[in-house]
Amino acid sequence: MEWLYQEQFIDYHIALKAMQERIAQIKCREKPELVWCLQHPSLFTAGTSAQTEELLNDFGLPVYATGRGGRFTYHGPGQLVVYVMIDLIQRRLDIKEFLNTLEGWGIRVLEAMGIKSEQRSGRTGLWVVNEQEHEEKIVAMGVRVSRGITWHGMAINVSPQMEYFKGIIPCGLSGFGVTSLEQKGVRIDIKQVQKILKTNCPF
Predict the structure, then answer these.
(1) At what angle do helices 95-112 and 190-199 cross, to 10 degrees?
(2) pLDDT at 188
(3) CA distance 82 to 198
(4) Which residues are catalytic?
(5) Does the CA dihedral 68-73-76-79 come out positive or negative?
(6) What single DSSP character describes residue 54?
(7) Which pTM value belongs to this model?
(8) Pairwise CA distance, residues 62 & 16, whole Å
(9) How confident is the model at residue 52, as a pLDDT?
(10) Which CATH entry fits the domain spanning 2-199: 3.30.420.40, 3.30.930.10, 3.30.70.270, 3.40.50.300?
(11) Residues 6+ apart with CB under 8 A from 13
C-alpha cells in the first residue's frame, strides 16, 4: 500500500485521469494499491444518481459529472479528499464490506479528534448530532469499482467554505445539514488530519 499526500490543489479532471491510470497499474501489478489525500479547488461533482434539480446554485463553479456512486457534493479548499484504490478481489472483500470499513475508518479518525460520528442506514457518509438534535453530515462518501479496483472515496470537512453547500441538496438528502470540524470547535491543520488518517488506516 502506498500513501500519498499532496499539499497543492489538484484539478478534478487531473485526479480522475490519475486514478484511472493507477487502477490499470494496480490490476497489472505494476504499482501497489494507493491512498491519495489531497484538496481540490472549489467545484461541484455529480454522482451517478444525481438529479438536475438538486443543483440549486453553482456559484459559477465548475460542475463535473463523475462515475462514482451518490449524488451532488462540493469539494474545495479546507476539505480533505481521500481517494482509496485497493484490489477487492485480492483482499477478498465485497463492496459492502469495503464501504463499512471506509466508514469505520472515518469514525475512528473523527473520534481521535474528539468528534462522535455515526453511520446511518440508507444514508452514506458520517453524521453528527448538533445541539438542536439535528443530524449533520461531516464526511461524504462515494465510491466506484472498476475491474475489481476501488476508486473515489471520502471527503472530510475540515474547514471548507460552508456557504457553497447551500448550492446543492447534499447527496440528495434534504432536511439534513452539513458541518465541519471547524464548526464543531476543532481547529486543526489538514496535514495533521491526514496523519491521523494514516495512523488509523485499515487497509
Answers:
(1) 120
(2) 97
(3) 11
(4) 171
(5) negative
(6) G
(7) 0.93
(8) 15
(9) 86
(10) 3.30.930.10
(11) 64
| E strands in the chain | 2-5, 34-38, 43-46, 63-65, 72-75, 79-85, 118-120, 123-129, 135-146, 149-157, 177-178
65, 46 in Cβ contact below 8 A? yes
How far apart are the C-alpha atoms of 96 and 102, rounded to whole Å? 10
What residues of the chain score a pLDDT lower than 70?
170-174
Tell me which residue has cell 490519475. Answer: 18
**For residue 131, what pLDDT is reported?**
81
The three three-digit cell numbers of residue 114, written as one number = 474528539
What are the sequence ranges of the domains in the chain? 2-199
Which distant-in-sequence residues (6+ apart) come within 8 Å of 28 by Cβ? none
C-alpha cell, 158: 475540515
Confidence at residue 168, expressed as pLDDT on a 0 to 100 scale: 87
The predicted structure's pLDDT at residue 182: 97
pLDDT for position 174: 66
Our separate counts of H helices and E strands in the chain read: 4, 11
Strand 149-157 vs strand 177-178: parallel, antiparallel, or unpaired? unpaired
Amino acid at position 93, single letter: L
Report the residue count for the chain: 203
pLDDT for the residue numbered 46: 87
* 3-class DSSP assignment, residue 108: helix
